[in-house]
Amino acid sequence: FRSGLKVCFVWLDISEELARERTAGRAGHFMPSSLVQSQLDIAEAPEHALVLDAARPLRALLGETLRFLGATTD
After folding, report:
1. CA distance 19 to 25
2. Buried b (16+ CB within 10 A) or exposed e, 54-69
3. What predicted TM-score, i.e. pTM, was given to this entire model?
4. CB distance 12 to 52 below 8 Å
């Protein structure tokens, strides 16, 4: 997948409890919270990825991601 490309991966690490809470709160979303565990069972973090805790505030996740990519927040 990465062959010949400059690709960076960001992996949001999320607990089953938080993922269920978030999916349950999405009205009309295609993925029911009943599928969360099966998705977490098969998920594999990519090598050399920035791994972030999905429970952190969005602004913090964005800032860390931009720093990882070498971008500025200005």
Report:
1. 10
2. eeeeeeebeeeeeeee
3. 0.72
4. yes
Identify the CA nearest to 15 among candidates 40, 38, 46.
40
Q: Concatenated DSSP letters for 15-37?
A: -HHHHHHHHHT-TT-SS-GGGHH
Sign of the torsion angle spanned by Cα atoms 16, 21, 24, 27 = negative
Q: What's the CA gap between 64 and 13, in Å, rounded?
A: 14
Q: How much is the mean pLDDT over the chain?
A: 84
Helix (H, G, I), strand (E, B) or coil at 9: coil
Q: Report pLDDT for 44.
A: 87
